[in-house]
Specification:
The protein has 345 residues and is an alpha/beta fold. It has twelve helices and nine strands. The chain starts with 20 loop residues before the first helix and ends in a 7-residue tail after the last strand. The protein binds adenosine-5'-triphosphate. InterPro entries: Rossmann-like_a/b/a_fold, TilS/TtcA_N, tRNA_Ile_lys_synt, tRNA_Ile_lys_synt_N, tRNA_Ile_lys_synt_subst-bd.
């Protein structure tokens, strides 16, 4: 998978003739998506110490002479495992080995869940990048992560937007992008790459713990699906890629329709115009409308109840939404009102 089955030690000054299949693949991916990691940029590589981010780091180190990047390594110690300080030290040594600047953040308050850890980590990575005027944070998310995320969101009942999550890039702020250049590479390939170049990997003991849903999907669900179809992982990731394009198209069309069916600075939607649109656009317009006016994101049920008002008799209304708003069918409009105002009408 990496070009030769014989392993060879990590060459710290490789030229193009030392490149493996993965070097070529990532180089071509970045060339065809040239906005992802432009030449000459400063990149902050987020390294956990696991096989994916260690593979990512070596690939970027080896490709940088072609691309003129300036690299720095960041590690976040969540303090959630007894070996987390040793893990951080391991990444520090990896950065030293490549002679790269190393930045670490260590959690001071106890992080209770994986979700807490993730949101703290992204905040920490953003702070490091911003303090060093770096515009790109690069992570080692792979095609395997993409397939797992799709399954995870599917069984949580997330809509198409959740199914197409994990995209090549995501803006973290106006000046900072998160970039995932390994999204077309499988975890088996990063593992083979690390073995081939004898790269030192930090094995996270919790990765085998099936009490975590993500681990269970990785260790049990995906292998079961691969027994049914050996290419299941690739197909799932391709589905996520295709859904993303559909989702962007629908979202843009819905945004245009939203502008036509609402009035400036007014929480109203024109029922007759909405009624003529396809159901997929009606749902998305209503989601954008509620997202704009409500203090928190609407759920599926709230969107469906508002959708129902398009054809409902005048004065029909939804249950109150969080924050005290509710939607009302008011002659030609669906109107979103703070609940107390209803009494005055
Ligand atoms: N402790 C860490 N320090 C720095 N980077 C990290 C750390 N943990 C994860 N990363 C980065 O995030 C990538 C994805 O890691 P992992 O799949 O473990 O995270 P996750 O919580 O599932 O992430 P996400 O929610 O973004 O999908 C890694 O390849 C690495 O680039």
């Amino acid at each position: 998978m990496v070009g030769s089955s014989k392993s060879k030690p990590d060459n710290l000054n490789p030229d193009k003739s030392d490149w493996s299949h993965l070097h070529g693949l990532v180089h071509r991916t970045l060339r065809s998506r040239s906005h992802l990691l432009p030449t000459g940029e400063r990149l902050l590589v987020a390294v956990s110490g696991g096989q994916d981010s260690v593979c990512l780091l070596k690939l970027l180190v080896d490709l940088r002479s072609q691309w003129g990047w300036h690299l720095a390594v960041a590690h976040c110690d969540h303090q959630m495992r007894s070996d987390s300080a040793n893990n951080a030290q391991h990444v520090r040594e990896l950065a030293e080995r490549y002679d790269l600047p190393f930045c670490q953040k260590t959690a001071v308050t106890a992080l209770k869940s994986e979700a807490d850890a993730r949101s703290w980590r992204y905040q920490a990575l953003m702070e490091i990048a911003q303090s060093q005027a770096i515009a790109y944070i690069v992570t080692g998310h792979t095609q395997s992560d993409r397939a797992e995320t799709l399954l995870y969101n599917l069984i949580r009942g997330s809509g198409t937007d959740g199914l197409s999550a994990l995209w090549w890039q995501r803006p973290l702020s106006d000046t900072l992008q998160l970039v995932r250049p390994l999204l077309n590479i499988q975890r088996q390939q990063t593992s083979a790459f690390c073995q081939h170049f004898q790269l030192p990997i930090w094995e996270d003991s919790t990765n085998q713990d099936i009490r975590y849903t993500r681990n269970r999907i990785r260790l049990e669900l995906i292998p079961s699906l691969e027994e049914i179809n050996p290419k299941a992982q690739t197909h799932l990731a391709t589905t996520a890629e295709l859904l993303r394009a559909d989702m962007e198209y629908l979202e843009t069309s819905a945004g245009e329709l939203y502008m036509q069916v609402t009035l400036p600075n007014s929480a109203k939607l024109d029922r007759a115009q909405l009624a003529r649109a396809p159901l997929a656009l009606q749902r998305r317009v209503i989601r954008q409308f509620l997202l704009h006016w409500l203090p928190q994101s609407p759920n599926f049920e709230q969107i469906e109840k508002t959708l129902h008002l398009i054809h409902a008799p005048n004065r029909s209304q939804t249950d109150p939404f969080p924050g005290g708003y509710l939607a009302l069918a008011n002659h030609p409009w669906i109107e979103l009102l703070p609940k107390p105002n209803l009494r005055d009408r």
